[in-house]
Amino acid sequence: MTIAIFGAGAVGCYFGALLARAGEDVVLIGRQTLVDAMSFRGLQLEKDGRIEHVTVRASTDPAAIAGADLVLVCVKSPDTQAAAQAMKPHLSADATVLSLQNGIGNADLLSAELNRPVIPAVVYVAVGMAGPGHVQHKGRGELVLGEGPGADAAATRLNAAQIPTEVSAQAETALWTKLTLNCAVNAISALTRRPYGVIARRPEAEATFAALVAECRAVAQASGVTLPEDMLDQVIGITRSMSGQLSSTAQDVIAGKPTEIAMLNGEIARRGAALGIDAPLNRALAMMVGLIEPRRDAT
C-alpha cells in the first residue's frame, strides 16, 4: 500500500516524513528542486532539536500517485482545481483522498473535479522549509478529519505514524474556526513580516483581532456555521503559544511566492459580499497582501 502526497511543500513534506519514518511506502509529488535535493541526501526532517534524514521517494510527475490507496492533497488552495485535473487520470478507483489545505471548500472542489468523495482535514501544525528537501517542525501536528468513506482507516494509519488524528462530525466548524484564526493573524504577519508574539504586544492588537473575528463570525453564521464562543481567546492563545511563528502567508511573501490570501481574508470578504454582509477589514487586508505578492500568471 502506498501513500501519495500531492503538493510536497512544508505540510506535505512533514507528514510524508512521519509516515515514511513509520514504515509506510510514501511518494512525494512536488517541484524539481525538491526531487533534486532528495536524490542527494533524502528528506531532512528537523524536529525536537535534531535533524533526521528520511528515505522517501519523490517525483514531479502526477502519474506517481498511480496505485496509491491514500492520497493527501497539500497544494495551495488556488491550485486545487489544477491539482485535481492532474491527479484524475492516475487515481486508483478505491483510493481515499484527503484535503489537507487552508481555507474552506477545497474538499468540495476536489470532489466535484474527481467525481468521488474527498475528506476535508483540518491541519494544526507549524512547519516551514529551511531549504529544498529540508522541513522544520515548529509546533503542534494534529489533524481532524471529516466523516466519509475511508476516514477511519486513514486516521488509524496516521495515528500509527504518531500523527494525532481524529474523525469528527464537526470538521466543517473546525475548518471555519481555523479559517478565522488565519484571517486574524496571517495577513498582519505578512504585511509587517513580524511573528505573532510581536503583533500581539501592540496595544491595538486585541481590538483589531476582535473586529476581524466579528466579521468572520457574521459571515460564518450566515453560512450556517456557528463559531466557538471563545474564538477571540483562541486567536490570542495562538499568538502566545506560537509567539515566534511567522504566518504561512508571511513566509510566502518573504520567499517571493504567491499566497493563499484570496482563500483566507479574501474568502470572507467575497462570501460576505454575496450574503450582504460587509467585511471591510478582511477586504482591506486581502487587497494589501495582494498588492505585495507576485502575480500567479507571472510565475
From TrEMBL:
Lineage: Bacteria, Pseudomonadati, Pseudomonadota, Alphaproteobacteria, Rhodobacterales
Name this polypeptide is given: 2-dehydropantoate 2-reductase
Enzyme Commission code: 1.1.1.169
Record organism: Pararhodobacter marinus
Keyword RNA-binding on entry: no
Protein origin, superkingdom: Bacteria
GO terms, molecular function: 2-dehydropantoate 2-reductase activity; NADP binding
InterPro entries named in the record: 6-PGluconate_DH-like_C_sf, 6PGD_dom2, ApbA, Ketopantoate_reductase, KPA_reductase, KPR_N, NAD(P)-bd_dom_sf
Keyword set, alphabetical order: NADP, Oxidoreductase, Pantothenate biosynthesis
A Pfam family: ApbA
Domain Ketopantoate reductase N-terminal: 3-149
Pathway the protein acts in: Cofactor biosynthesis; (R)-pantothenate biosynthesis; (R)-pantoate from 3-methyl-2-oxobutanoate: step 2/2
PANTHER family: 2-DEHYDROPANTOATE 2-REDUCTASE, 2-DEHYDROPANTOATE 2-REDUCTASE-RELATED
